[in-house]
Amino acid sequence: MKTLASLAIALASLNASAADLAEHTFSTYVNDQGEISLPADARKSWSHLGSWVVADEKAPGYGFHDVYSQAEAVEAYRQTGEFPDGAVLIKEIRKVEHGVQTTGQAQWAGDTAVWFVMVKDRQGRFQGNPHWGESWGWALYEAKNPALNVSKSFEETCKGCHVPAQQSDWVFSQGYPTLHKP
Predict the structure, then answer these.
(1) CA distance 115 to 95
(2) How many whole angstroms separate alpha carbon 21 and alpha carbon 80?
(3) Strand 132-133 to strand 145-149: parallel, antiparallel, or no bridges (unpaired)?
(4) DSSP single-letter state for residue 10
(5) Which of 90, 94, 89 is CA-nearest to residue 54?
(6) Cβ density class 79-108: b for 16+ within 10 Å, e for less
(7) How high is the mean pLDDT in each 10-residue block of the chain (182 residues)?
(8) Whole-number pLDDT of residue 2
(9) Rg (CA), the chain
(10) In angstroms, rounded to a whole number, what is the distance separating the alpha carbons of residues 165 and 159?
(11) Domains recognised in the chain with CATH numbers
(12) DSSP assignment of 49-103, as one string?
């Protein structure tokens, strides 16, 4: 009985935290028209979900891909296996630097090239807005002007790359070990 009560308390606090997350996200990073802004300095204060490297210089997305989300979104995902309403994912793509180091030839992340931002919308708040689709808001920012979303639309800019991940809520979650308990 004590275990059941503890579980009920944990779920209630998770629901409250998830509601707070959605309220914060949709008042801070998304305006009334559904325009998404790039959260500032997520690398410093958000949870690092995981990294990818696209090593082929000719491939789209060449560079280091680091993905971040809010700690509350990570905790909710660990509890439910789903991203809560208001979860924000930021993929930062950084240029590849390389050279000889004491360990030999090495590659490391250089300057930021672009950021992709996804915002989970379980309520369908922005129907008809071309940047919202499949229960997510989608945005793309270039380092030269991080205040301007240069995505044309979800369909044109984002969907093509994410089709292989549609069975996992359009997110390549297999590359994000932080979403899974150690």
Answers:
(1) 12
(2) 15
(3) unpaired
(4) H
(5) 94
(6) eeeebbbbbbbbbbbbebeeeeeeeeeeee
(7) 47 60 95 96 95 93 96 96 97 96 95 98 96 97 97 94 93 94 80
(8) 54
(9) 18
(10) 10
(11) 2-179 (3.50.70.20)
(12) EEEEEE--TTSTT-EEEEEEE-HHHHHHHHHHSSPPTT-EEEEEEEEEEEEEETT
Looking at residue 182, what is its pLDDT? Answer: 79
Residue written as token pair 């809560």: 84
Tokens read off for 20: 């707070």
* Nearest Cα to Cα of residue 149 among 46, 7, 35: 35
Q: pTM of the prediction?
A: 0.87
| C-alpha to C-alpha distances, 5 to 14, 16, 19, 72, 77, nearest whole angstrom | 14, 17, 21, 22, 21
Q: For residue 114, give the H/E element and its range.
A: strand 104-120
> Can you read off the two tokens belonging to residue 139?
């945005």
